[in-house]
């Protein structure tokens, strides 16, 4: 009785903390701090940017010449994809060399396989890159400007429209001509051709291949043909994306990198400060506008979008490739209308100049922040509180149970036994009733006696079960990664059968676990459990006891609390989703264990009472059966296959197997947390929840049969 | 300023004759700017050989047009001192030779020394080889004759004196010897005073001391300071060593404002002993100090340009000296060489017409110009002329890997020549990169090399907080091939005091040194190599030592910047340590209050604390324990 009251108290506390954690996000945008520049050396806007209309005309000239070239190439039927790519790349290389900047073509093999076309005619991708050697430097530090084009996109630019190639080339030309007095770091220009990429891929393989090769030690023997000049340590990267999809009124700063990694806040601040100086700070935006969400206040919408982008782990632009190499990077995106091109070019030149001033790497400002607007931030010290609140119900529960478990073993206590005994001896003089009253009071105050029914065997049992589930999770995680070829094949094969096959697969897995493996383990740990129940009906204890709950929930707690440092947003969404599941599963098991307690307590009573008790338990179990059935259905719907199907159908709008292969690939490329979470954490968790429900079911049925 | 000195080793015998001779020579040379003194020196068999004590100064400048509108200007000032250096009193009288350097030579026992200050990088593939190659920062090479005080204290004295002399932090080469080492094969003495010079490359150079008639091996100390930035404060003391300073002669062009606004700037001072007279087996070496300065200017956007494809440059505009050029009055010779590069289509035109012209150079003799009639040199050449072929040996190195835990260094040496070449690669890597020598991979054209394929291989591990690990490999690289070397390392977490200021910039690693031995027979006329002057002995005024069969060419790889795990030196770090301390104090005392058992000394009963905090704690624990 006391136990249940305490549980109600704790669960109420947990629920309120959980809700307050979610609600706290609402208050972030209004309480966010103003951003400030930490690194004084950046000095944004202290020098006049000389990028003017002459350079702007060059943007259009380059853009249109290049666009016409691509258009011609695409209307020449004799040229195939790779040929087009090479000609276009060579054109850029030649034009850059004419400007006076040494430039090279970096060829890389495309290992990417399309789902529908299996022919891999050893395609080569092309990157054009050039190094603008700063006259006064030692060549130990550099800054990257990157962008991409698609040589297979035959769309001709309309009048005055610009492309990222034109923009980048014009900026490089400007830097080459005007920058020689102030450049102190090498500028690396990297333009990659995205023609060989499928549409589902949001980021460029070319940039990844280049950055991999840049840091690689495999030394090419074909030196003359594939000379790969380096420019020292890359300190920052700015990626430029010019596309129709962006709103022409805005200039977008997209900072979210792979697995939600962010650049140093100073990098965003610099662009922001420069925008203020150019008096376009109101144009700066952090995410694409979604007209359907306009009922949410602007800052909150931006924050939500920011967190969603971070949680997905997929970079918002090509800059995401640089994150994994510890290069601060950001994408600046504009539409291809000429409206903002001049301003953006000035911003970029200004940013390059600021970065060029840096003596050290960007390190002064924050790396962990949330941005409700480009000029406001929420720091890690604030947002971690929310996550703490959200996961607190589970933490409280687990801690509570851990403490009760500790009574199973003889633990050294810091309390003086003597003092409690002296308390009892002193109360002998007090009348019996009064004594009882005091005890009642103590019980009320302390919330009753907390004693675990778990024997060491239970703990061992639950520990091994959790280990088994975790092992299944590890297998699910590592097998597709080690046998990526056959996994791909299998997924292709299964997707032809349909979504049902996913369920069949998981049903087989579940049946195998619950009907074959678990009974074996049960028999190992509780060899005479069945006998015992047949003889004395009331030895009914839910296997593993509360220790099972503790052990099954430890992995998710550890995962959420540690990974929140890497990707806060993902962990927040994951915990909002999974914490109620975990906590709720406990109440379910707890109901059963309270019944057991009742049974235990009446064991010494008369037969009549026992029968009554049995009757009540029968009716109880009937009710429980229905309850459990519903719960089973709910939990099975929320198990990994269910989640996969919902996400693939409603969020990503793809086939569920395509979705699986996408998240595996995303894990490969961006090391985002979706795949590890689903396999390593969520699959074992759902298994143990199902186990804890069904485990008790079988026992109560046994009881009914008597 | 004219000082006549007489040196006598044996008094009495020929005192009169010597003094007469001295008098005559003094009279004869009074009008001349070089000062000569006759003296005698005795050899073991009691013969007297006379030698003349002379000090002379030569100034030269070489101008070479480079592709893409750049030009290389190399200034070379050499001061020679011919005297009896076995006599200590020689180092008490100076004329043209700088006293500060002379003192140092005597005190530290320098047999040979080269100190180079460099800013910017030399593009070997684009510009060919420089006359004196150098790594980024400061490089100090010293061949020391062991003295009684010990080589370490000699090195200490040398670095400290030089840092005082040149306003640079050379003392760190001794104090923090992360970049100080002694390679065994890469560096050879440039002078000829020592024996074993012309012998095998792997023998230790040594000198023969006349008075002790013993052979003493020389000690080499090699140090680089990659982070040292070079500026005017280093130039000023360097200019002070010149007899005419920047007042007249070629030195006039040394305008610091213009000298540092360049792509490449390398300032060096070399002290060496050479054999001027070939007959008496280097008994009397000549002390030579060569001060050279190489700059690479970008002249394409100079104000003189009218034609877009041509580069036109006037020397006085380039260095902002409108007075024109004339010779330094103290100089024996003063010449400007303009390299013709006749095989290339440079369309080089020089005005006025040179004094003499040969196939390699157009030479201006500044002795023929004067303050009234100075030289206004104007050059013009084609902006985008191409070099005749690739530079034979080019080397690049870069860091591999990422993150703050481990990484690697990879070096590529490219031979673009037809002929195989002997290469020595040397790299000193500071101790804070913990090298794994088993990961050292060496391959030529993808063919992995094993130990026995090297002509010479020497690897020494680092000593923590002291000397660097060194790798020295000698091998033959076939024609048209690439040799690649790579090694992995772990990054050490340093003490916070060991981080340099601006810790987050990272650590600079010194360049690797590649010494290529180019056989002069393989230099095809008209090839890019034949266009280069890559030796300090290019001019007629420097005394070439016995011509080697092979000329060593030095190539330095790029300087590297590496980030080590850096503690957060910002406010946050302070806050964490401070709050950590406060918390530790708080919890320490708390636990002390709660856990400590107090016992009544008389009854032996436990004493239960009545403090409110102890009560609260007990209640919490009761709630948890359920007791």
TrEMBL record, chain A:
The keyword Secreted does not apply. It holds the Pfam family Gaa1. GO terms for biological process: attachment of GPI anchor to protein. GO terms for cellular component: GPI-anchor transamidase complex. The chain crosses the membrane at residues 7-28, 383-403, 459-479, 499-521, 542-560, 566-587, 629-652, 672-690. The keyword DNA repair does not apply. InterPro entries: Gaa1. Keywords: Membrane, Transmembrane, Transmembrane helix. This is Uncharacterized protein. It comes from Polysphondylium violaceum.
From TrEMBL, chain B:
Pfam families: Gpi16 (PF04113). Coiled coil: none annotated. Keywords: Membrane, Signal, Transmembrane, Transmembrane helix. The chain crosses the membrane at residues 571-595. GO terms for cellular component: GPI-anchor transamidase complex. InterPro entries: PIG-T (IPR007245). GO terms for biological process: attachment of GPI anchor to protein. Residues 1-39 form the signal peptide. The keyword Protein biosynthesis does not apply. The keyword Signal applies. PANTHER family: GPI TRANSAMIDASE COMPONENT PIG-T, GPI TRANSAMIDASE COMPONENT PIG-T-RELATED. This is Phosphatidylinositol glycan.
């Amino acid at each position: 009785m006391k136990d249940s009251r305490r549980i109600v108290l704790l669960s109420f506390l947990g629920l309120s903390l959980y809700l307050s954690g979610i609600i706290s996000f609402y208050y972030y945008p209004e309480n966010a701090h103003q951003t400030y520049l930490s690194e004084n050396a950046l000095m944004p806007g202290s020098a006049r940017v000389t990028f003017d209309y002459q350079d702007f005309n060059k943007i259009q000239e380059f853009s249109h010449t290049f666009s016409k070239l691509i258009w011609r190439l695409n209307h020449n039927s004799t040229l195939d994809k790779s040929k087009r790519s090479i000609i276009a790349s060579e054109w850029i290389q030649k034009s850059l060399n004419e400007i006076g900047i040494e430039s090279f073509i970096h060829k890389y093999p495309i290992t990417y396989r399309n789902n529908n076309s299996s022919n891999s005619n050893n395609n080569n991708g092309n990157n054009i890159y050039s190094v603008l050697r700063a006259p006064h430097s030692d060549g130990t530090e550099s800054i990257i400007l990157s962008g991409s084009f698609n040589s297979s996109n035959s769309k001709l630019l309309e009048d005055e429209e610009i492309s990222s190639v034109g923009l980048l080339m014009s900026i490089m030309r400007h830097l080459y001509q005007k920058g020689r007095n102030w450049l102190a770091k090498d500028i690396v220009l990297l333009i990659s051709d995205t023609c060989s990429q499928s549409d589902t891929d949001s980021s460029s393989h070319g940039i990844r291949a280049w950055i991999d090769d840049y840091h690689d030690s495999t030394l090419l023997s074909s030196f003359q043909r594939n000379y790969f000049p380096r420019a020292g340590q890359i300190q920052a990267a700015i990626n430029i994306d010019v596309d129709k999809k962006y709103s022409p009124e805005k200039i977008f700063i997209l900072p979210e990198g792979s697995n939600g990694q962010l650049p140093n806040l100073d990098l965003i601040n610099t662009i922001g400060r420069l925008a203020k100086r150019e008096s376009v700070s109101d144009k700066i935006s952090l995410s694409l506008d979604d007209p359907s969400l306009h009922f949410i206040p602007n800052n909150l919408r931006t924050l939500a979008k920011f967190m969603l982008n971070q949680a997905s782990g997929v970079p918002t632009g090509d800059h995401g490739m640089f994150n994994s190499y510890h290069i601060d990077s950001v994408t600046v995106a504009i539409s291809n209308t000429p409206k903002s091109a001049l301003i953006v070019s000035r911003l970029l030149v200004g940013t390059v100049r600021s970065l060029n001033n840096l003596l050290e790497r960007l390190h002064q400002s924050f790396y962990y922040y949330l941005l409700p607007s480009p000029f406001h931030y929420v720091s890690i010290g604030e947002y971690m509180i929310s996550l703490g609140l959200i996961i607190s119900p589970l933490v409280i529960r687990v801690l509570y149970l851990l403490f009760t478990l500790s009574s199973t073993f003889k633990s050294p206590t810091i309390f003086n036994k003597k003092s409690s005994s002296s308390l009892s001896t002193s109360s002998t003089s007090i009348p019996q009733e009064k004594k009882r009253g005091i005890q009642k009071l103590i019980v009320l105050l302390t919330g009753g006696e907390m004693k675990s029914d778990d024997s060491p065997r239970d703990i061992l049992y639950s520990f091994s079960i959790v280990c088994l589930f975790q092992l299944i999770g590890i297998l699910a995680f590592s097998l597709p990664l080690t046998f990526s070829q056959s996994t791909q094949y299998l997924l292709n094969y299964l997707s032809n059968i349909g979504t049902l096959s996913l369920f069949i697969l998981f049903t087989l897995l579940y049946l195998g676990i619950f009907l074959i493996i678990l009974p074996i383990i049960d028999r190992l740990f509780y060899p005479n459990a069945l006998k015992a129940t047949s003889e004395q009906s009331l030895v009914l204890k839910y296997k593993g006891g509360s220790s099972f709950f503790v052990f099954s929930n430890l992995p998710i707690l550890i995962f959420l609390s540690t990974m929140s440092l890497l990707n806060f947003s993902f962990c927040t969404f994951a915990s909002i989703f999974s914490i109620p599941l975990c906590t709720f599963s406990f109440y379910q098991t707890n109901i059963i264990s309270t019944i057991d307690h009742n049974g235990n307590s009446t064991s010494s009573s008369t037969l009549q009472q026992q029968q009554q008790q049995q009757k009540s338990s029968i009716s109880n179990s009937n009710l429980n059966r229905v309850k459990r059935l519903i719960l089973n259905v709910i939990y099975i719907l929320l198990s990994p296959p269910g989640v996969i199907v919902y996400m693939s159908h409603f969020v990503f709008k793809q086939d569920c197997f395509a979705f699986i292969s996408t998240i595996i690939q995303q894990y490969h490329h961006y090391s985002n947390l979706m795949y590890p979470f689903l396999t390593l954490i969520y699959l074992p968790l759902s298994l143990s929840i199902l186990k804890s429900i069904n485990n008790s079911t079988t026992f109560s049925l046994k009881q009914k049969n008597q | 300023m004219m000082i006549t000195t007489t040196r006598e080793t044996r008094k009495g015998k020929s005192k009169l004759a010597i003094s007469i001779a001295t008098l005559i020579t003094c009279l004869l040379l009074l009008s001349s700017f070089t000062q000569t003194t006759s003296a005698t020196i005795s050899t073991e068999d009691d013969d007297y050989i006379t030698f003349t004590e002379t000090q002379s100064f030569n100034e030269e400048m070489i101008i070479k047009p480079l592709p893409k509108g750049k030009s290389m200007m190399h200034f070379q000032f050499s001061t020679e001192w011919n005297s009896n250096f076995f006599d200590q009193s020689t180092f008490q009288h100076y004329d043209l030779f700088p006293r500060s350097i002379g003192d140092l030579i005597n005190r530290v026992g320098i047999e040979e020394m080269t100190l180079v200050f460099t800013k910017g990088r030399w593009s070997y593939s684009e510009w060919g080889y420089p006359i004196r190659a150098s790594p980024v920062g400061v490089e100090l090479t010293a061949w020391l004759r062991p003295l009684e005080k010990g080589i370490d204290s000699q090195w200490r004295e040398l670095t400290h004196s030089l840092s005082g002399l040149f306003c640079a932090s050379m003392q760190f080469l001794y104090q923090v010897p992360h970049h100080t080492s002694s390679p065994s094969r890469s560096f050879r003495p440039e002078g000829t005073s020592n024996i074993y010079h012309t012998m095998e490359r792997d023998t230790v150079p040594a000198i023969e001391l006349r008075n002790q008639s013993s052979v003493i091996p020389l000690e080499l100390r090699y140090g680089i300071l990659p982070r040292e930035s070079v500026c005017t404060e280093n130039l000023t003391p360097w200019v002070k060593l010149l007899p005419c300073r920047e007042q007249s002669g070629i030195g006039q062009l040394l305008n610091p404002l213009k000298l540092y606004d360049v792509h490449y700037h390398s300032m060096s001072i070399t002290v060496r002993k050479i054999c001027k007279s070939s007959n008496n087996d280097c008994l009397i070496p000549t002390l030579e100090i060569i001060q050279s300065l190489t700059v690479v200017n970008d002249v394409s956007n100079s104000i003189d340009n009218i034609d877009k494809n041509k580069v036109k440059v006037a020397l006085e505009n380039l260095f902002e000296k409108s007075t024109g050029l004339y010779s330094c009055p103290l100089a024996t010779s003063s010449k400007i060489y303009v390299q013709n590069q006749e095989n290339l289509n440079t369309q080089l035109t020089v005005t006025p017409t040179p004094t003499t012209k040969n196939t390699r150079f157009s030479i201006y003799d500044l002795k023929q110009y004067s303050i009234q009639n100075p030289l206004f040199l104007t050059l013009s050449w084609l902006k985008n002329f191409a070099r005749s072929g690739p530079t034979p040996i080019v080397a690049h190195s870069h860091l591999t890997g990422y993150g703050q835990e481990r990484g690697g260094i990879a070096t590529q040496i490219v031979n673009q020549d037809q002929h195989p070449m002997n290469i020595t690669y040397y790299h000193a890597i500071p101790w804070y990169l913990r090298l794994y020598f088993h990961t050292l991979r060496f391959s030529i054209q993808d063919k992995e090399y094993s130990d026995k394929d090297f002509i010479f291989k020497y690897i020494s591990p680092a000593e923590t907080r002291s000397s660097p690990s060194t790798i020295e490999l000698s091998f033959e690289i076939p024609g048209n091939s690439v040799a690649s070397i790579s090694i992995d390392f772990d990054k050490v977490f340093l003490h916070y005091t060991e981080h340099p200021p601006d810790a987050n910039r990272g650590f600079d690693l010194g360049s690797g040194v590649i010494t290529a031995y180019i056989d002069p027979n393989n230099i095809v006329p008209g090839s890019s190599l034949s266009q280069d002057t890559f030796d300090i002995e290019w001019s007629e005024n420097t005394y070439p030592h016995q011509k080697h069969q092979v000329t060593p060419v030095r190539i330095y790889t790029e300087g590297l910047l590496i980030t080590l795990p850096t503690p957060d030196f910002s406010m946050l770090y302070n806050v964490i340590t401070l709050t950590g301390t406060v918390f530790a104090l708080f919890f320490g005392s708390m636990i002390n209050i709660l856990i400590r058992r107090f016992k009544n000394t008389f009854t032996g009963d436990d004493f239960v604390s009545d403090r409110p905090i102890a009560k609260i704690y007990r209640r919490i624990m009761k709630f948890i324990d359920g007791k």
